[in-house]
Design goal:
83 residues, mainly alpha, 73% helix, 0% strand
């Protein structure tokens, strides 16, 4: 993000700020309507990111790949019957 306020707001949403920093941002949000609007915009972006990229469960992904490989090894394709 290019705007330092965006970085601070993002960290505020993520709960990454120290208590003093959190209090400063919270106060600014109350006092500055534009900052409050920007926080709401960033919340929407945050939600869209969460919806667009569900967390990847590496263990399940590896399990699916290994399972698929095992199935192929146990049941090799017959070129005469597979189309």
């Amino acid at each position: 993000m290019n705007n330092p306020d965006d970085d601070a707001l993002w960290d505020y949403m993520e709960g990454l700020l120290r208590p003093r920093e959190h209090a400063i941002i919270a106060k600014r949000i109350q006092e500055e309507p534009a900052l409050e609007r920007r926080l709401e915009e960033l919340r929407v972006v945050h939600q869209l990111i969460d919806l667009a990229s569900p967390p990847l469960d590496i263990d399940k992904s590896i399990e699916r790949v290994v399972s698929g490989i095992r199935k192929k090894l146990q049941n090799p394709k017959n070129p005469e019957t597979d189309t």
